[in-house]
Amino acid sequence: MNEKQKLNNLVVSFKASRKDETFNEIHAIVIGSNFRKYEKIGESLRSDGHEALALYEDTLIRCIESYDGARDFENYFNLCVKSKRSNLYRNKKLRNSYEDYSVNDSDENAATFEIVDSFDLEEYALSTKKTDQLALIGFLVEGADATTKAIVEAFLHHPNPTATAIANEFGFHHSKVTRALNRLAAKFSTKQYGNYHDYLVAL
Fold first, then answer.
1. DSSP structural state of residue 100
2. Against a cut of 0.90, is the pTM above it?
3. Domain hosting residue 27, numbered range
């Protein structure tokens, strides 16, 4: 049995038994004990090791709960953690684009706020749109099976988000992807939101 299959079996076993020993084994394989690794990841995300480790552990827990055995858990986790890292980096970058404002009292005690020139309005707008996208998609996939959720997650972050490409990623027929999206579309109001495909494009 290879390491990927071993991890798959451990996750399935933990979901059935909820044994701490099994979770600890999963944690040791996926997260490890090298904190320096997370310090380096934190630096790359404009953060620190503790926040990076928390991101990985939170993603691990979420992935375990949504895993249905349809693909290798390692690949599924890596895809999800890549998405979470991108979101954290984007949020940190946006937050740091604001300069600490200074208050200059005038004769009338009016406050003046100075915003750094490097603030990117377009980036802010895109980030806001991304947040709206994810909020709506989260509503639509609520109650959906784990496979549908994984397909939607893949669509959001795949460089070539087509049914065939996503099917190849998961290793099943493209019609399964199409059926999953059709079920999602049934809950989607085109009059209110437009074409649901527009919400499955990574920004």
1. P
2. no
3. 1-87
